[in-house]
Amino acid sequence: NIGLHIVHGDITQIDPDDIPDVDVIAGGPPYQDYSVAGTGAGEDGERGKLVWTYLSIIERKRPKAFVFENVKGLVTKRHRPTFDALLERFEAIGYVVSWRIINAWDYGVAQKRERVFIVGVRKDLGFTFDFPEPTAAEYRTQVLRDVIGDLPEPHGIGLSDKAQAYLERDPRHI
Known about the structure:
This protein is an alpha+beta fold. The chain is built from four helices and four strands.
């Protein structure tokens, strides 16, 4: 699926006509202005405005579906008006939207990272996207073991008393 048809660049500099017609557009506008660790500028920030640029590309290209990903700070009280307006606008341009905060760890990624996902499906398709259920806890633990289980034991660094007590209590976490 990767090839010459991929348009990679600054969405403020790309003419939507240069984006090929596709069934699905996936993107995550820069998040720093919505991050709890960021500036908090929201849509007033330079990067924060890009959620609207993303929406305008969806409106112009009219894919069958889109996937929008961003930090969960976008749904906090401070930025919720922007988030709600974004959902309303996606619906106004003809999409049925579903959204959820997803922790990557719950879907087999060896990292605990929460993000908000919005999936929109064009209304004329008569379909509503349902998010899949998280993977089983045993699978998540196995993925972590698969990713780091063969790393050598650390040498020359000491564990805190709390970490050492944790490992002694349940060595399966190693």
